[in-house]
Predict the structure.
Amino acid sequence: MSNVMTETDKVRKQTRRFMIGALLVAVLAFVVIAAGGINKNLVYYWTPSDLYANGDKAYGATIRLGGMVAPGSIRNHAGVSGVEFDVKDAGRIVHVKSSGVPPQMFRENIGVVVEGTMTRGGYFECNRLMVSHNNEYRAPKGGHKMSKEELEKLMKTTEGLQD
Amino acid sequence: MNAALGRILILASLLVSTTGAILAFAAGAKKSIDGLKWARRFAFAFAACMALATLVMEYALLTHDFSVSYVAQVGSRLVPTWVTIVSLWSSLEGSILFWGFVLGIYIAGATWLTRNEHVEYMAYAIGTWLTCGTFFGFLIAGPASPFQTVAQPPADGPGPNPLLQNHLLMIIHPPMLYLGYVGMTIPFGFATAALLRGRLGLAFLKPLRNSLLLPWIFLTIAIMLGGWWAYEVLGWGGYWAWDPVENASLLPWLTATAALHSAIVMERRGVLKGWTVTLVQASFLLTILGTFMTRSGVFNSVHSFTQSSIGPTILVFLAFILVGSIVLLAKRIDSLEAEGRIDGALSRESMFLFNNLIFVLITFTVLIGTCFPLIVEAIKGKQMSVGRPYFDAMVVPAGAALIFLLGIGPALPWGRATKEQAMRSLLPPLIGAVIVAVAGFALGSRNPWTVATLAFGGYAAWVTLAEMWRPVAQRMKGGESILDATTQAQWKRGRRRFGSYVIHSGAVIVIVAIAVSSTMRTTHEVSLRKGGTATIKNYSLQFLGTEVRNEPNRVATIARFRVQKNGRDLGILEPRMNQYAMMREPIGTPAVHSSITEDLYVSIMNIDPSSDSAGILLITTPMVGWIWYAVLLMGLGGVIALIPPRRIIATVASELADGRDDTVAVNA
C-alpha cells in the first residue's frame, strides 16, 4: 500500500516539477519580452498643448493628436491626394501633413484625431486621419472650443479609414 | 402593463435563483437527493421566468409599447419588423435581458441532460449556475432594468443603433457572442462542483468537455463574424485591430481552447486535472471581464455601443468570482490527484503541454496589452493605448508556434516514442511543408514569418489529412469498401476524433490565411472625377459617377464603378455612404469583389454628388475570404465532435469497468 503511495507521489512530483520549471522559464521570458514590447509601442493620446509640453519626446513617438481643424487652414494640393491643415486646441496649434485622401466628414472646425509623429521639420506627419464614427459624438459647430474631456473621448472613439 | 409584468417576472427569477442556489449548495453539502431534485426544479423555474420576461419584452417591442423604457429607447414604428425583433440585443438593457434568457436556456438544458447522471456533483453545479443567475437577475432588476415604466410614453422612438441595421452580420454576431460567453457558465459550474467535491473522475469529464465545446463553437464563430463585420463595414479593409472589445472576445476563447486540449490529456493520461479546471475557471472569469470591458464604458471603442453604470456591479461580481475561484483552487487543487504521468518529451501529451503554454502566453500578452492603458490611466491619469505592433510582435511568433505544434503534435504517438517511431511519423509531412512554402514563395510571399507559417501549415495539413485517412485505410485493408470504411471510421465510431481533425484543418487554413492576407495586401488611395479610372494590381475601375438613393430608413450616396480584371469585365461595384435619420455622420459601406484567391475592396473616403467626384481607398487582399469559411469549418468540426456517438457509450462503459471509474479514484 505504502509502495503505491510513494509511486504516485513520485509521479506527481515529477510531473509538477516539469510543469513548474517549464512555466517559470516561459513566464520569465514572456515578462521580459512583453514589458519591452509595450514600452516601445505605446500610443500617446495628446492634445496640441500636451504635444508641446512633452518637448523632444514627441519626435518619433506614436501620437494620437486630437483637436479641432483650424478654420481656413485646409490646403489641398492639385493632383495629389494629400492634405495639409492645422490642428488646434485651446492653446496651441500643430501643422499636420497627411498623405491620404481625407474622409467624408473632414472639414474646418471639426474634431479630428490624427495618428502619426512629430517631425524635426516642425510639422506632424500623419498616417491616419480620423473623424468620429461614434453616433453619440456630435462635432461641435462654429469654432467652439472642445473641452479636454471631449477631446479625450474623441480620441478613444475614432477608428481610422486609413491604415 | 408590459413593464409591470416584466418587472414581476424578473423579480420572480431573482427570487427563484437565490432560493435555488442556497438550496442547491445545502443539498450538495448534505448529499441530499431530495434537495437536488428541488434544486433542479428551481433551475427550470429560473429558465421559465427569464424566457417569459424576454417574451414580454419582444411582445412590447412588436406592439410598440413605448411605456416600457427599453422600447422607448430603441423602438421605432418606422423600422422593418425584423429590425424590431433584433432590437432586443441592440442596446445594453435588452442585451442583458437576452443574456439572462440564454443563461436560463443553458442552465435548463444542462440540468435536463444530466438528470440521471453525476448525482454527487450536480447539486453544486446547479448552485453555481443559479448564483450566476442571481447576479444577472439582479442586473436586470436593478442597474440595467429594461422594464421601467415610462410615465409619458412618446408617440414614437428613435429606433435601434443604425450600425445594427446597416449589416446583416451585426444581427447574428451579438447573439453568437452571447451564446459563447454565457455558455462558459456551464463548464464553470461543473468545474466548481468538481472542486467543491474535491474530485474529478473520468466520467465527469464528458459533461465538462462537451459543455465547454458548445460555447467554444459559438465563440469561435462569433469572433469571426465580428471580424467579418468590421471588414465589411468599417472601411479600412482590415478585420482585426486589437481593439479592447475585440480582445475581450478573444481572451476566453484562448483559455477555452487550451482547456479543450488539456482535457484530452486528462482523459488519456489522468494528469492535468487541476490545470484543466483552472483553465475552465479562467475562461468564465474572462467572459465576465469581457462583459465589463464592453459594457462599462471604461474603454470607449468603436464597438462599445452602449455605456452605463453597470460597470461597478460587474466588477464586484468579477472580484467575487475571482477570489472565490482562487480560494477554491488553492484549497482543493491537491485533491484532484494525478492518476498517471507524462512519460517523454517527444510524445503527443508533451506537445499538448506546449500547446497549453502558448495559449496561456497569448492570453497574458493580450490581457496585459489590453489592460495596461487602463492601469496607467487609473494611476497616472494619462491616456494612451498599446499599439498594434506590440500585439503583432507578440502574437505572430506564437501563432507560428501553434501551427507548428498543430502539425507535429498529432503526428507523435501517445506515451514514450522511440526515435525511429518519431522519425517515421515526423519526416513524411515535410513534403507538405516544402510544397506549400515553395508555392507561397513563388506567388510572391517574402515575409519570413509568412513563409514559415506556410511551411508549418503545409506540414500540419499533411499530418491532419494523413490522420483522417489512417483509420479509413486500416478498415479498407480489412476488406471494407471506401464508403463503408469512411462512414464507419469517421462517423459511426471515431466521430469525436474526426471532428477534431476537421477543426484542425479549419485552423490550419485560418492561420495560413491570416498570415497571407496581412502581409500580402496592396492598397491605393485616389481621388476621381466621373469617367476617371483607377488601377490597382491587375484591376481597373472606371468611375461611372455618383447616385443618391432614397431608401426607407436611410439615404444612400453611392459611387458606381465598372470593374475589370486583366481586361475581363467583373461587373459593377457600388460602395456607398448610408445616412440614417438620427445619425449625424454617414456610415460607409465598402463594396467587395471576392474571388477564390483574393478580394478587391473599394471604400469611399469622401464623395460629392454635386461634382460627381469621390476619394476612394482600394485594397486587394489575398485569401481573406478563406478566414470566414475556414472558421465555419472549425465550427462544423466542433458540431461533429459534439454529436453524441451511440456506440462510444459502450466503449466508455467497458473502459469504466476496466477500473478507470471515478468511484475508485481519489478521495483517499
Summary: Confidence is low (pLDDT under 50) at residues 133-144, 159-163 of chain A. The longest strand of chain A covers residues 62-69. Chain A touches chain B through 49 residues (CB under 8 Å).
